[in-house]
Amino acid sequence: MLQIKEKFKEIFYAVIPIAVVVLLLHFTITPLEKDLLIKFIIGTIFVLIGMPLFLLGVDLSISPIGEKVSGSLLKNKSLWPIILGGIIIGFSVTIAEPDLHILAGQVKDITLGSINSNLMVILVSVGVGFMVALALVRVIKGIRLNILMTAIYLIIFALALFSDPEFLAVAFDASGSTTGSISVPFLLALSAGVSNLTRRKGNEQTDSFGMLGIASTGAIIAVLVQGLFNETKVSGNLPMDVVSDQNVFKMFFSQIPQVALEGLLTLLPVIIIFLIVNVFNLKESKRSIRNIMVGALYTYIGLVLFLAGFNGGFIDTSRQLGYQIASLEKDWILIIVGIILGVVIIPAEPSVRVLTKQIEDETAGAINSKTVLIALCVGVGIAVGLSIMRITIPSLQLWHIILAAMIIVIILSFIVPKIFVGIAYDSGGVAAGTLTATVVLPFAHGAAQYIPSANVVIDGFGVIAIVAITPLITIEIMGLMYKMSMKKQQRKSKKIKQGGIEV
Amino acid sequence: MMETVSSYQNKKVCLLTIIVNRGKSKKILHSAKNLGITRANVLLSEGMVGNHILKILAMNETKKEVLIFIIREEREIEILDYFTSKFHFNKPNTGIAFTMPIITPILDQPQKYTKQTAYVNVITIINESLAEDFVDFVQSKGFIGGTICKARGTANIFNPLIKTKAQSAKALVMMITALDKLETLMDLILDKYNIHEENTGIVAVLPVNQVTGLPHIIIDNPTDVIMKGQMLTAIVPAGQSEEFLQKTKTLGATGGTILHSRFCNLTETAGLFSFVVDTEEEILITIVNEDIAENIQKITLKLIFENQIENPHAFAIPVLQAKGIRINNE
Fold this sequence. Notes:
heterodimer; A: 503 residues; mainly alpha; 21 helices; B: 330 residues; alpha+beta; 8 helices; 18 strands; 25% helix
């Protein structure tokens, strides 16, 4: 079957469950306003058209660019140009990430201006840049990921000790915001390319996963360090969105120019990197350059369409759902709906699609993409459930959840097979993507708006953080199950010891 | 230990290859299980559709899967017919299946000849970045098909960065071609990609016993043809290819190509808390000239059994023509 046809089919089955859940809720416990419902349906249609195009474009352009860039980086004879290249790449893809700018703006507001938002964006981008370089060096030198990540986590622990617990939420949210729909496929391909070109005797198997995980810790460290030098008491308030009385269609379409600009800004760094590398290093065939450019166009159109769909159609609907369900004053319904939303959004998350495809390619399908998807769904379902519980139970603090999760992640990373450690660390930033921002976050905001003990601002921060850390555990548990199943199989085959050929 | 080796000797076997759209392998593996086949290797691959409009839109790429089974020669027709009728391979765009002869590894008499066949499998190993261009080019000259499998090359290229010899990204392209068109195809490939020069690529022509999904051609009076070499194939657990290569290199081979696959154990069933795990396996192929083939083959087998690798597989496929193999001067 043609790629594009398959992608349309795939996305259809991924997005429809979300629509079904929303419609079911509409017809049962939380009837939505007609305007909202229309916006949601238009949004869904935009997503259904945009996402397949985007994914095809990524296959044709962003991933090949990542691979080609890794190829030209590795032509260097020493590590320094590679480190410099890594820093530039990490910096430029992060600074263009719109989610990061939104987060920085919010941080400035809630800290009453004591945190400089522009400085924060720059620091986070530099942090990610250094971590991308570190991740490249790790793959080239064959340093084990679990040891490196444990060391990085210890640094984060140490910094967290000196930070305000509420500010911690901001730092972890930043880690989820830095890995967007363009940087995820680009960094994954870059890492895979470097890993494939440095395979050698004694280090033959793929070691390509883990770069996203390492890169996103750069954001956490950068924000925590900036916090150390500033007043970080979370005390301000966020200006609430003003809902205008415009016509639904006008409201939906008026946001498109903004989305189109943001999309262009995120895509531009990758294209510029490609053009620079192309001038200096590569002798590409006309056909492949043409395909990359066509692919970039698909990526752009797809990105704008699905971002417009999610932003325009999903945010208000989810907020309204959260508010209305909270107003039923039955906490358990709120938590269950949260879990269901967490589960159904994951298959529709573009970055998740990119990661599962990469996993399948790198392991020749030995690690099934569906299994990874299930583990991620369970992880994010639990994460959203925990986020809602945190709103309803005031004594449950964010750092309780994060600390416990980080300790489990570290311990498991020394038990499960190497490749699952990499996949796990990558999955965090991937799970906390566009859909977390446009469905889970507004849902939590809506619920917090109704619940008297909750604070929209404080409880809002930290949702992305939880979504970005729980999937690590479920992926590692899946790795553990793989390991045990494999051992069982090996024992069995040893008993039979079939030699040679059967049939 | 030699008992296991003897199991190769007593049975005449052949290699069954099925190429289908990505995602269809599950059903095929299930059928294979019903046929009593116990193991399979699955490779991920890509194909290109010849449609001109799709090509302009850069949408002509399709994802494929290549399934490899080793079956007994006496069941060859039965198994092929079963798959053909069940998955309608004789209709267009459903997939193709074909078998290739296997030289039984340790024979008392070295095999020199192989049967003439109506179709051949032309294998081209080139740099990965060239693979899609390659298929585009060949298709533009009127040939159909072309399946690209990602591979890694292991020729001795020193990488100054990691201060050791690193593997390189290659691709293996398979094209099933009728015998009468072979010469045109070979000329096209050799010319365009300068295969005669060193380090540009390898082209090898392998015989195809039976094929479905392509027009049936019968050769009158098939004669035996002389083998020009062998394609030694060892299927080993992921990460162990280099070890085997080192040994074959000492015997005169210059390099090898590693294909990444997953091994599907068809004897397993999922339990309540466990699932059937497909493991990663590497298919290591080394194309060698006839004069050194036999020695390498023996050594490869010996190595596999000395290392006591689970479910080892090593076999050789006759090569009718080979271009671009370097001669080891070391």
